[in-house]
């Protein structure tokens, strides 16, 4: 797999919570849990299952920081 996104974090699928049309997939990356919202169709097409290896691929144009 080759992608232009620089932030490709390899981890293990921790949980998959399916909704009506969207699933929340959590990936454990060395103790840090990252959550992604993807379609149920994508979960099925990718064959995602708890315990399998997956990549969290992050592509963003900006990162905001806020304080009180």
Automatic annotation (TrEMBL):
UniProt keyword terms in alphabetical order: Molybdenum
PROSITE patterns linked to this entry: MOP (PS51866)
Record GO biological process: molybdate ion transport
Mop domain ranges (all copies): 2-67
Alphabetical list of SUPFAM superfamilies matching this protein: MOP-like
UniProt protein name: Transporter
Organism of origin: Gluconobacter wancherniae NBRC 103581
Taxonomic lineage from the root: Bacteria, Pseudomonadati, Pseudomonadota, Alphaproteobacteria, Acetobacterales
């Amino acid at each position: 797999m080759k992608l232009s996104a620089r932030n490709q974090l390899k981890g293990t699928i921790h949980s998959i919570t399916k909704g009506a049309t969207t699933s929340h997939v959590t990936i454990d990356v060395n103790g840090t849990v990252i959550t992604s919202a993807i379609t149920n169709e994508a979960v099925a097409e990718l064959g995602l299952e708890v315990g399998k290896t997956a990549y969290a691929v992050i592509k963003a144009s900006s990162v905001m920081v806020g304080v009180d």
